[in-house]
Amino acid sequence: DYNAVMKSWVNSGEMNAAAERVEQILRNMQDKFVEGDEHVQPNAESFELAIEAWTIASDVDYAPARAHKILEWMNHLYTSSENDKAAPNTNCFHLVLRAWASSGKLEAPIMSEHLIMWMQHLQQQGLESAKPNTMCFNTVMAAWLKSGDITAEKRIRQIFEFMELSSRKGNTDIKPDSSSYNTVISSISPAVKKLYDSGGARRADKILARLEMGFLGGDESLRPDTIIYNQVIDFWAKAQSIHGHYLKARDVLDRQIAMYESGVRKCRPDVMSYTSVIAACASTYGSKKERRRAFDLAHKTFIESCRNKFSHPNDVTYGLMFKAVGRLLNKADEKDRYARTLFNLCCGDGCFGEMAFLRMKEAASPELLKELTNDCEYDGLPKEWRRKVVTPRRSSNASKKSKNMTDL
After folding, report:
1. Which of 22, 87, 128, 368 is most buried, by the most CB atoms less than 10 A from its CB?
2. Closest CA to 372 of 399, 405, 398, 336
3. Which residues contact 53 (CB under 8 A, 6 or more apart)?
4. Which residues 6+ apart lie within 8 Å of 181 measured at CB?
5. pLDDT score of 399 more than 50
6. Cα dist. 323→156, 227, 298, 328 in Å?
7. What is the signed CA dihedral for 200, 204, 209, 214, rounded to 10 degrees?
8. What distance in Å separates the CA atoms of residue 346 and residue 283, rounded to the nearest whole number?
9. d(CA 212, CA 200)
């Protein structure tokens, strides 16, 4: 069985060498079939194995192009009636799409779109085996996401809206699923984190609301997860220019908690969920009243985080709470009271990392700082205080880097 031999090569781990051998076997099979040996006629599985072999040949950069060429050859053999078992199918196309999407090549998103258009053309000509599905469109969006192209968000949104429109018209084969929504929201990240686009959080929140509405309406394919909620909370945390951004972040967390408590275990809030809300609070500007309101919310969120083992504060959470104390409280005695309590909790949890130390220096009075740390710098503090800190120690510019990390 030639297919069995090809499959063993695909699973051999030999990457490029395996792909070359599998393609050689496939071409020999086709040559013998043309010469009259019908017992070795390559079928769809044969071509799929050859394509798959190239998709996992990560040791050469031309692998996606070679997989693509086999697909083109497959289509040629079928349309020219040289092999009636070589009809291109969705699985073969998806393998090539995935190869381009994961390659990181400049041309990857364009090649992926061309493949989708080719599939649609074949379907229009009556070849139903090659019709695109949700997974194919998701892979095209993933190619755009990985490209880092400045137009990626816009193009991903256009593809997503096309999928939604097609679904509403009755084509359920390309209906967006939770992965589609995740990609759309992920595509907003560069605008929020690099271009400081304050509107990015709103766009992401609206997409999340559509996902929630669809799932609550009975569509199981739109079941949300922790990642998608955490992304939107993080976007709001970085939208400091929007008044009340910390309330928006907390609103998303509240929706996540409600969704989890309703039975959606995939979206269980974790430490990042709570920490991002605290980050949003800690970055709040405005009047004394506004900053007090933000601190109270940070405190409430921190206490909730402490109650659950899945969301228990880590070194970043503590660092951001120290930041909230230093930036949001006005009275020195109140700052010291909170700083002392936080310090004791933080050290008891083994989470007194460098970020927490630097933020505590900004929050506590010199007298309290000296009392708590015995006037030591970070390296001189007991290791027991930071036993759970996983962030690698940094040298020389450590203070600057830690501060930049928390300037949300």
Report:
1. 22
2. 336
3. 6, 9, 10, 18, 19, 22, 23
4. 160, 207, 208, 210, 211, 222, 224, 228
5. no
6. 36, 25, 10, 8
7. 140
8. 21
9. 18
pLDDT for 402 equals: 43
Length of the chain in residues, anyone? 408
Distance CA 342, CA 359 (A): 11
Rounded (5°) CA angle 44-49-52: 120
Q: Specify the DSSP class assigned to residue 396.
A: S
- Cα–Cα dist 205/297, whole Å: 20
Amino acid in position 74: M
Query: What DSSP assignment string belongs to 244-286?
Result: THHHHHHHHHHHHHHHHHTT-GGG---HHHHHHHHHHHHT--S
* pLDDT of 36 over the 80 cut: yes
Mean pLDDT of the chain: 94
Q: Which residues of 243-272 are buried (b: 16+ CB within 10 A; e: fewer)?
A: ebbbbbbbbbbebbbebbeeebeebbbbbb
* Cα–Cα nearest to 140, from 83, 98, 92, 176: 98
Rounded distance, CA 67 to CA 83, Å?
19
Chain centre to alpha carbon of residue 47: 32
pLDDT bin (cut points 50, 70, 90) of residue 365 is very high
Q: Which tokens sit at 204?
A: 């992401």
- CA neighbours closer than 13 Å in the CB half-sphere of residue 260: 17
Q: What are phi and psi of 14, to 5 degrees?
A: -85, -5
Burial of 402 (0-12, 13-18, 19+ CB in 10 A): buried
Q: Tell me if 224 sits within 8 A of 266, measured CB to CB.
A: yes
Residue 249 one-letter amino acid: A
Angle at 13 between CA 12 and CA 15, to 5 degrees: 115
HSE, CB side, 13 Å, CA atoms: give it for residue 104. 3
Q: What are φ and ψ of residue 328, in 5° steps?
A: -105, -25
**365-366-367 Cα angle (round to 5):** 90
Which are the contacts of 201, defined by CB distance < 8 A and separation ≥ 6? 192, 232, 235, 236, 238, 239, 242, 245, 248
- Mean pLDDT to the nearest integer, 144-150: 94
Stretch 13-40: mean pLDDT, rounded? 97
Residue 178: name the closest of 148, 223, 145 by CA.
Answer: 223
Q: Output b/e per residue, 97-112; b: 16+ Cβ within 10 A.
A: bbbbbbbebeebbebb
| pLDDT, position 392 | 60
